[in-house]
Amino acid sequence: MHYELQGCQSPDAPTILLSSGLGGAGSFWAPQLDALARTHRVLIYDHLGTGQSPAALPAGYRIEDMAREALALLDRLEIDQVDVMGHALGGLVGLQMALMAPARLNRLIVINAWSCLDVQSARCFHVRRALLRDSGVEAYLHAQPLFLYPADWLSNHHTQLLAEEAHALAHFPGKDNVMARIEALSVFDIDARLGDIVTPTLVIASRDDLLVPYMRSQRLAEGLPNARQVMFDYGGHGLTVTVPDAFNTLITQYLADDTALIPLTGVAS
Predict the structure, then answer these.
(1) Per-residue pLDDT tens digits for 192-232
(2) Start-to-end C-alpha separation, the chain
(3) What residues does 111 pair with on adjacent strands?
(4) Alpha carbon of 148 to those of 23, 117, 185, 231: distances in Å?
């Protein structure tokens, strides 16, 4: 898999692995890199079958496979322990890593993730699959921001979104891979195993997330033995993009001292 190591290069610096959502590309984390690079070695990667990690994903591909691939990357780089931050599907990968290799994870940050899929999320992914299957890649990509961002942000960033859409079209990983990844996140269900995840976890959610209702994050926070939750009032599913300053302040505070989260304006903890 394609990866990049950025930030502090000292062997003593803590490493944080960033795992992206459905799109899978490490470039998703661009708004967070400068903030994290001051204190951490930052490992970003393109999930298998996305971005610069081309592959034809096999039948029955699951989140467990993605977790194994992330752990194999750590082995390849001889990184024994990491903090892991994952967005949506990437959060599922982090949760699965915590189940499979708890000794490898110092802390976990999951953003707009879930232990099992909500009916609202299933509705959204059903629509997205239908668009891709019946209307084509361009329609799928043109509709994608509707599920990710608040309406006012969409209006104010229209030109930027068109440019990103054109880039995504030019680098689309293929219908079969996208369908396989949607299927993997749809069948993911560790709800009965949350009590087995002992990794200290920060659960972040957006109250206005259309794609993943914030109640799924509340369920994570309630079920995980060592979890804390922070709820953003605004930001949508892609709050790392829409409110990067508030988000970066939160995570840098947490990584500096995970016992004391300072309340932020517009954020209810």
Answers:
(1) 999 999 999 999 999 999 999 999 999 999 999 999 999 99
(2) 36
(3) 87, 204
(4) 12, 17, 16, 17
Nearest-angstrom CA–CA distance, 64 and 93: 7
Query: Considering Cα of 185, then 30, then 14, then 221, what sign does the dihedral take?
Result: negative
Alpha-carbon dihedral sign for residues 26, 29, 30, 36: negative
Element (H, E) at 157: none
Residue given tokens 């951490």 in the structure block: 40
> pTM here?
0.96
Distance between CA atoms of residues 65 and 237, nearest Å: 24
> Do the beta carbons of residue 186 and residue 122 sit within 8 Å?
yes
Q: What's the rounded Cα separation, in Å, for the pair 24 and 143?
A: 18
DSSP one-letter code for 58: P
pLDDT in tens, 24-61: 999 999 999 999 999 999 999 999 999 999 999 999 99
